[in-house]
Each structure stands twice: as C-alpha cells, then as structure tokens.
Amino acid sequence: MTDAESLERAIHERVMLVPYDPAWPARFATERTRLLSRFPESLHEVEHIGSTAVPGLPAKPIIDIMAGVDSLAVADGLIAPLLESGYVTSATFNAALTDRRWLMRHADGRRTHHLHLVVQGERLWRERLAFRDALRASPALAGRYALLKAELAARHPDDREAYTRAKGEFIQAVLRSAVPITGYR
C-alpha cells in the first residue's frame, strides 16, 4: 500500500471500538518523547487524552495527544515541521478550528495518533484534562461512557464527526460536575 493509499483509507476509516489495550500508555510515551525531543522549545506539557488514556475503557485504537503551546500562532508555525515529522493534516479543517490545531499520524491505512495543539492553560486544555481525570477517577462514570460510545459507534459507523458530536452532551455534563475541582465554567 502506498502512503497516499494509506492516508485515504485512514481518512475514511470506520468508527470501531476495541477493548482497552495496556500497550496504549507506552505508545503515548514513545510519541511524547519523540515530540518533546523534536520541539523542546515550542511544546510544553504533552498529555495523553481521550479514551485510550483511561485504563479499561474501550476506544478507537488511536492515541490522542494534547500538546500545550503558548498561542495558536505557535501552533500554526509547528504545522510544517510536524508534517515533515510524519503527521498529516487538513488545512480546511484546521481553518475551522478556533481553539486548537489538529494533526494525524497513520500507518497501513489506519489512524495511529491524533495530535491536538492547544494553548496551555486555556479552557479547552482544562476541559480535556478534567474529562480524562473524571473518567480515570470513576469506574462507574467510565462504564456509562463506554456504553454510550458503543451505542454511538453502532449508530454512526461511517461518520466520525457525528460520532464525536453525539458524545458532547455527556462530556458537558461531566465537566459541569467537575466545576469545584477544575474551575471549568
């Protein structure tokens, strides 16, 4: 399979959840080390987010990484070097984002990593960490989220954006309950 074919397949990959893989934290750690060694002055904290960051939670087998930057201008300046470092992105998709920049790595027609460049400490940064931490702290909450994800993956197997949007109400409810801990508003 050529790189172009792999990318095309990865872009149109179905929403499929798999059981938790204990190798996911190591895959994150490897990529975190690679990113921080390549961009030590531009990236601050690099966090494992998303369902692969929650032990025991079924997930799409894609490592979600959130890297803290000083500004979206810094994030924009990192796009070209990240493309040279094995990531791909959509300029059109990123132009529609007001709070982050998004990139993806892929191999053999499957997404392997999503990289979210986010201004460290701003609302999106705090929300993503608060949601991850709430799921890690409560197996019951993580279980409810797993059931919802399975239902939504079955309902939207060919529409990643619809799948993601449909999780929004649950995520917002969790964040509202996290106000005392995170300062989320």
From TrEMBL:
What transmembrane ranges does the database entry give? none
Q: Would you indicate the residue range of the signal peptide?
A: none
Looking up Pfam families in the UniProt record yields: GrpB
Under InterPro entries, the record lists:
GrpB/CoaE, NT_sf
Tell me where on the tree of life, at the top rank, the source sits. Answer: Bacteria
Q: What is this protein called?
A: GrpB family protein
